[in-house]
Amino acid sequence: MPGKNHRRPMMVANWKMHKTAAQAAEFLLRLRKLRDDNHTADGCFVVVAPPFPALDTAAGAVRGADIALAGQNLHWESEGAFTGEVSGGMLAAAGCTYVIVGHSERRLGSCETDEQVHKKVRAALAAQLTPIVCVGETEQQRSDNEIELILRYQFERAFWGMSEQELRGSVLAYEPVWAIGTGNTAPPDVAEGTHRFLRRCAADIFGPEAAAGLTILYGGSVHPGNIKALLEQPDVDGGLVGAASLDSDSFFALIQAANHAAARGASTKM
Ligand code: PGA
Fold first, then answer.
1. If pLDDT is split at 50, 70 and 90, which confidence band does 78 have?
2. Which of 105, 107, 132, 231 has the most neighbouring CB atoms within 10 Å?
């Protein structure tokens, strides 16, 4: 498989249930200023996933700034009597180009099933959104040596019956549940081994070329102190970041690390 230098790194801020519209605007204005002051030519994709009520304000705050917006969830139907839900079309109309699907906090906290994750991936693609599809094993599954079994199952169910084109329109995020919000970041070599395994799962179904083009993010206690070592791994293409994305300076440091990784990729390509 070709190396990662043709995959542009990506840094995604998953704010979860944090920040009002006003706080989102404040963060984004500060982030824009940091990038301007540092003359940061963004080599990486930057994506921010605010809570729904802050999306509209965030869309205004990122205008012209090369920062994409993501929803944190969507329903698989395009409209209907689904109290509390939002559709892909609504997210797109609010300015999103990405949506997080199947986060473990939804799988475990809201009983989201693999079948629902699959329908959400389909709905996202139908609404022209790039789904960021999360997979990851629990601590128990890890100690039972079921990591590969679980990840292959989650991957295959999420992308069941989809085309190579649909995979190309998606991003995968490996988020070991035991690493989320715990400070127990997966060691870089462990993340690399798992990402390589996921890429093989993708290759088995969609072929080596589509798999080589798939962006695979790592998520779980990413912070400015550990991102560099993670991004140095050939199959780690970026981060899906919770806590360390809530502060604009910290998120900017992560973006800079991804920009450096992009520059390294570009130079090895020449
Ligand atoms: P964390 O969350 O960075 O706070 O561990 C990551 C995530 O859940 O996406």
1. very high
2. 132
